[in-house]
Amino acid sequence: MQQRNNMPGTITTKVNEIFTSIEGEGILFGTKTMFVRLAGCPFKCHWCDTPYALPMDSGVDYSIEEVKRIISKNLQPNTYKINFTGGEPLVQYEAVIELAKFASQKGLRVYLESSCYDAKRFAKVLPYINICKVEIKLRDSKIVDENQYSNLLKNEHECLRHAINSNKTTYIKVVVTNSSNLIEFKDIVREVFNVAQPSELAGFIIQPSYTVDEPTLDVLFGFYDAVYPIYDQVRVIPQLHKIIGAR
C-alpha cells in the first residue's frame, strides 16, 4: 500500500486494511464484523496468518479523522461489532482508544484482537472495549525467546485480571499445534483459573493451527479434556472464515 501525506501536526495511524467479513474465530464466530487491521507487530508467531501486516511500513498513514470517515463510509447495515486487529493493535494503542470511542458513539460493540503482550497499554484501552479476548501463547508459538516468555505470561495474566475486574465480556483463546505441550497447557489452565472464576469467563477457545503443524483429533481431545473438568464451556473452534473462503 502506498504512503500518503498528511497535514503537518496531525496525529496519524498506520492502517493496513479496513473491511467487513464474517468473524471466523472465538466466541462470536459467525457475526458480521468490520475489521480495522492496524499495521505493525513486534512478534512473529510461526503460525501467523497475517504476515503481510507485521511490518510497520505495511500500512498507510492516515489521520484519526480520516480513519473515522473511512469507517463511516464503509460501515454496512447490521454489523455486529468492530474488531481492532493487526498486526498487533496495542502497538498503536492511542489510535485504538480514539477509534474505539468513535465506534461506540456509532452504537457498535468494540472488540480487541490482541496478544495482550503489554498490560499497561491494555489497561489504557480497556475502558473503551466491550469484548476482550485474552490470548495465551504457548511456547511453540515462538512468539518470544524463552528468556522473555515468563514476562509475556505475566502480562497476559494481568490483562485477564484487568478485564475481569472491569466486568468486560472476557474469554480465553489458545492456539494449539500438533507440537504443543499438554503439560505446559495444563499449567496454563491452572493459572487462568487462579486469576478468573469460571463464572467470570464467557468462553475458553482452543483454536487448531491452520496449515502449519495442524493438530490431530486425538491431540485436540487431550487439550479439551484438560479444561472441561474445570470449565465445561470450553470449545474447539477452527478458523471458520477460511473454511467458507472469507477474509
Q: Topology of this structure?
A:
Blueprint (H helix, E strand, L loop, with lengths): L11 E11 L9 E7 L21 E4 H11 L6 E5 L7 H13 L3 E4 L6 H7 L5 E5 L10 H20 L3 E8 L5 H14 L8 E5 L8 H11 L6 E3 L3 H4 L4
Parallel strand pairs: 2-4, 4-5, 5-6, 6-7, 7-8, 8-9
Antiparallel strand pairs: 1-2, 1-3
Helix pairs in contact: 2-3, 3-4, 5-6
In short:
With 247 residues, this protein is α/β, with parallel strands linked by helices. The chain has helices spanning 64-74, 93-105, 119-125, 146-165, 182-195, 217-227, 240-243; strands spanning 12-22, 32-38, 60-63, 81-85, 109-112, 131-135, 169-176, 204-208, 234-236.
Structural write-up:
The protein is of the alpha/beta class. It has one domain (12-243): Alpha-Beta Barrel (TIM Barrel), CATH 3.20.20.70. The protein contains seven helices and nine strands. The chain has helices at 64-74, 93-105, 119-125, 146-165, 182-195, 217-227, 240-243; strands at residues 12-22, 32-38, 60-63, 81-85, 109-112, 131-135, 169-176, 204-208, 234-236. It has a nine-stranded mixed beta sheet with strand order 3-1-2-4-5-6-7-8-9. Strand 4 (81-85), helix 2 (93-105) and strand 5 (109-112) form a beta-alpha-beta unit. Helix 2 (93-105) packs parallel to helix 3 and helix 5 (182-195) runs parallel beside helix 6 (217-227). It is globular, with a radius of gyration of 18 Å.
